[in-house]
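During data preparation, we tokenized the protein backbone, and the record follows.
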Amino acid sequence: MKPAVVGMIAAMAAAAPAGTAFATEKPVSIVLVHGAFVDASGWRPVYDLLSKKGYEVLIVQNPTITLDGDATATRQAIAQARHPVILVGHSYGGAVITEAGADPKVRSLVYLAAFAPDAGESVLQLASTPVPGAPPAPLLPPKDGFIQVDPAKFASAFAADVDPKVTHFMAASQVPWGLGAVGAKITAPAWKAKPSYYLLATQDLMIPPAAQRAMAVRAKATLVETPSSHAVMLSKPAYVADFIAMAADASK
């Protein structure tokens, strides 16, 4: 963790009082890429906060069937952006931005409790690597080419610090994750050529914090830790929005 970065986020939060009017549009666009088992609606709190800060915010609706399909959807959003792009990925969305982030419009990458695979690696490889002391994610066996989280364990594993009414609905409305996305290998990881920022969720039970830290260090990312479940964009939307804004300001 870098104290200067944490201090910058705290200062930004203090300087932006709640209820302020929308700011003049900033010369940076933010593209938000969701992960597995959920859809883009989970970005709503972060979207609202970033929009109020003056950013153009585009949200990718990943099919989560194949990595190639999700990377294509992300590149389409990047192409629509009016400004240079800060590309943000949560969870499996980290693999998507790693694959799609080489686009010349992308200035930097932001990983939120996310996978950051290297060339030739898949999310399956990373997720299957045991982490001492960390329980495996409660995934059900693949069925018809897709994977889901055990609905009975979804709330506690994915979003223990989020309103139970929200997490119970998330469990019931899961989007199946295609094996073509889980097992696809990264071709040219964008983090090798672009500045990267990583927000590590220390209470994550889907991607072990130790695995997150190893990926962040490997990517030479600016690393900040926060006590949160895997669903950090829902449990700490203001903190996440400030973290993304910090990355956007640093990219100017």
